[in-house]
Amino acid sequence: MRFRHPDGSTVHLAYCTNVHPAETLDGVLAQLRDHCEPVRRRLGRDRLGIGLWLARDAAHALVTDPSALRGLRTELEHRGLEVVTLNGFPYEGFGAEEVKYRVYQPDWADPERLAHTADLARVLAQLLPDDVTEGSISTLPLAWRTAYDQERATAAHTALTTLAERLDALHELTGRSLRIGLEPEPGCTVETTRDALVPLTAIGHDRIGICVDTCHLATSFEDPHTALDALAQARVPIVKSQLSAALHAEHPHLPEVRAALAAFDEPRFLHQTRTLTAAGLRGTDDLGEALAGDALPDASPWRAHFHVPLHAAPAAPLTSTLPVLRAALARLVGGPHPLTHHLEVETYTWQALPPELRPRARAQLVDGIAAELTLARDLLTELGLKELP
Prior knowledge:
The chain is of the alpha/beta class and about 400 residues long. The chain has 12 helices and 15 strands. It has helices at about 25-45, 55-65, 65-80, 110-125, 150-175, 195-205, 215-220, 225-235, 255-260, 285-290, 320-335, 360-380, and strands at about 1-5, 10-15, 50, 80-85, 135-140, 175-180, 210-215, 240-245, 245-250, 275, 280-285, 300-310, 320, 340-345, 385. The strands form 2 sheets. The chain has an 8-stranded parallel barrel with strand order 2-3-4-5-6-7-8-14, surrounded by 7 helices. Strands 11-10-12-9-13 form a 5-stranded antiparallel beta sheet. Strand 6, helix 6 (about 195-205) and strand 7 form a beta-alpha-beta unit. The longest helix is centred in the middle third of the chain and has 25 residues, at about 150-175.
């Protein structure tokens, strides 16, 4: 979906396909048929943007077989879909029964991460629509915080600098300008937008910036205006923003609140949980840890890294951090000029929701994704953007 900003520029809105796990190119093509095109039709649109997730094997197949890449582009056009952004965070296995810490491997100190992301850039340069010259790829924020020493930090920074040089060369070759956005996430080396300032300033290349995920922003209790103003002041490019909402518990000391939270403690994904105390931010790596005894202070609200559907906040006594998303979006695209032109709805946890909230059929998932995109569209038009055909 495209929108015209009052300054005349185009803002792209997509939804991320990591909600439909697939490891192979055939699986990706099935996603387009079974999910993406039905969402477009449900919205009544001739064109729908998708934030494509390509696992390692799918990306490798595309870069080693030009005919396969041409075929994917043809399939996208045939189904009324367009790609201006990729999700390069998960490397493989995102649809496994247990993902947890595995999603952070390989990290930016490992050569496999550079090779995979370079493959993604080559693919995206060929998938961009003919009238679009700028693309974006989100990636993990360097590494998970453990076992990340100075030697690995140096290796990660060197890899990102190498990637930037390759993106420069790709621009010269194709005319397509691609940028990479580190995506701050609780528990990682770069946990907050503030954490991103030092490494990104050190790398100092405008092709390496930040991806602002509004669930992660909220989970870390970052104020959107303060965070985004700091990025602007440091001249860190906001490559893209993922529109998502975290799980919020206002009174975590109450038994009924803990019982409601326990329903979201599931085995597939990591749900880092945070609370803001007078002594600063406190947290656990997973929601189950927070619920176990006194691992986390409960005098103040808790927020958990659980991407809940934007249009459907959990039932009381829980809610979502949609107000944080609204505030961030107003700062991102509500000013005289957009801070980013790529927005991506990223609720990948539909099948990890408590059983009674999960879609029971493909059509229900299509309806849910369409409802999220409708909410995002309404927020953008409220900010003065005009939806384009």
